[in-house]
Write a structure and sequence with these properties.
5-stranded mixed sheet; globular; alpha/beta
Length: about 425
């Protein structure tokens, strides 16, 4: 029986095909029922079938033919597995699939998106004396990680509006940062970074460009192909896509891959095998899901744009979004989220109106996170941006009447009906 190796290894296969096949490890199974080979301790060697799904290898340790081989594997002279924190076949399958979709580099899976971002910053040598230039639109925990954790070890973080290219250029020239950190699409106003242009700026200055591509996914943008040095994903979101695991992944090439491998081994924030299996399964439908989520975001944003109870709608696909033109140039789609401000006519405060809207939803789930098959809705001011001062929230445009919706893959009319009936209650 032939393993469809040609397909999984064929980089020329199209994106959707690689999403299904890349990374799969269809190891031959030894023996069919009743065909045991007594010559081997495990009972059989009749390798005559392949499970089509990569097995979940839960083993924490791996034995070899003899100790000489173990020595070669541990010494890196022979490929193989020895101890789960160093590597695991199910995790390798997920990593290879992600690297294939990102169009290059090596992927390193971590236990969460935050562990992945920490690994990426360490690999970029952010330590004492280093300066980081970070997008002021960054995910709050990433900003806090930079300021508190890396700040405590002597690194300084400065912030810039990543959509103001002149400001980015000026700050890079002034600060000569070791790394610049941006997100493909930011939360919650869905600002779109001009990654190819920022990559030109960082390359000229010798800075490492780290792109958190969680909101973008490799379906909409592959930052390594546009000049970024390191890509980070919270695989908790779109990559796995079903709201049932926490994981992260970093994709990078030389000179960062060696440090990433070593760091992951030593810090130990590794992805678990069951999570890797779920995430690999999720990846197979990534192109289908993201396509549907982008279509749903388009329909819902068009509906909201014409609704009297939505004062402002944020969606990169809408012509009045500040980054509409950039999005058309640098993204392969409009993204799967929509944010909007409620128009408040009653005597309720903005927060009361937002809470009433959210409490009135019947189909859309009131829960944080994004990129799931379920449509999720949140109040950013009291969730993702809760830790910020009211003045900083206001500066970022995170008002009390702002709602963020991450579209799932349900039928758009059902989502629209649910949002419509909840708007009636406001
Ligand atoms: C853009 C972005 N990056 C990173 C993270 C952190 O990911 P995780 O929760 O998997 O650690 C999140 C989580 O919401 C996020 O939205």
């Amino acid at each position: 029986m032939r393993e469809p190796k040609e397909i999984r290894e064929k980089q020329s296969a199209r994106f959707e095909t690689r999403a299904v096949h890349a990374g799969e490890r269809r190891a031959p199974c030894q023996g069919a029922p009743g065909e045991e080979d007594p010559s081997t301790p495990s009972g059989s060697t009749n390798g005559n079938f392949y499970p089509i799904s990569t097995p979940i290898h839960l083993s924490t340790t791996f034995a070899h033919e003899n100790v000489e081989q173990t020595d070669r594997v541990l010494g890196g002279e022979e490929p193989g597995y020895s101890y789960a924190r160093y590597g695991n076949p199910t995790i390798t399958a997920f990593e290879e699939a992600v690297a294939s979709l990102e169009g290059g580099g090596r992927a390193f899976a971590f236990a969460s998106g935050m562990a992945a971002m920490h690994g990426a910053l360490m690999a970029a040598e952010i330590g004492n004396g280093a300066t980081v230039l970070a997008a002021e639109q960054l995910y709050g925990s990433t900003a806090t990680l930079l300021v508190q954790v890396f700040g405590a070890s002597g690194a300084e973080t400065r912030f810039v509006d990543s959509c103001d290219l002149a400001a980015v250029e000026r700050k890079v020239e002034e600060l000569k940062p070791r790394a610049v950190v941006v997100e493909t699409i930011s939360n919650p106003l869905l600002r779109v970074a001009d990654v190819p242009h920022i990559a030109e700026i960082t390359r000229a200055a010798g800075s490492t460009l780290i792109v958190d591509a969680t909101f973008g996914t490799p379906c909409l943008q592959r930052p390594l192909e546009l000049g970024a040095d390191i890509v980070v994903h919270s695989a908790t979101k779109y990559l796995s896509g079903h709201g049932d695991l926490t994981a992260g992944v970093v994709i990078a090439d030389v000179p960062y891959d060696g440090a990433l491998e070593q760091l992951r081994k030593l810090v130990g924030g590794v992805m678990a095998p069951f999570e890797a299996w779920l995430a690999l399964r999720g990846l197979k439908t990534l192109p289908l899901r993201v396509q549907r989520q982008c279509e749903n975001a388009k329909e819902v944003s068009a509906y909201l744009a014409g609704h009297p109870k939505a004062a402002k709608v944020y969606q990169p696909g809408l012509k009045d979004h500040p980054d509409h033109e950039v999005a058309r140039r640098v993204l392969g789609g409009n993204g799967g989220l929509v944010s909007f401000e409620l128009a408040i006519e009653s005597t309720e405060t903005a927060r009361e109106a937002a809470f009433r809207f959210l409490n009135s939803l019947e189909l859309c789930v009131r829960a944080p996170s994004l990129g799931d098959i379920y449509t999720l809705a949140i109040h950013p001011a009291t969730s993702s941006h809760r830790e910020l001062s009211p003045s900083r929230r206001a500066r970022l445009g995170v008002e009390e009447n702002l709602i963020r919706v991450s579209l799932g893959i349900e039928h758009p009319e059902d989502i629209i009906e649910d949002i419509g009936q909840a708007l009636e209650k406001v």
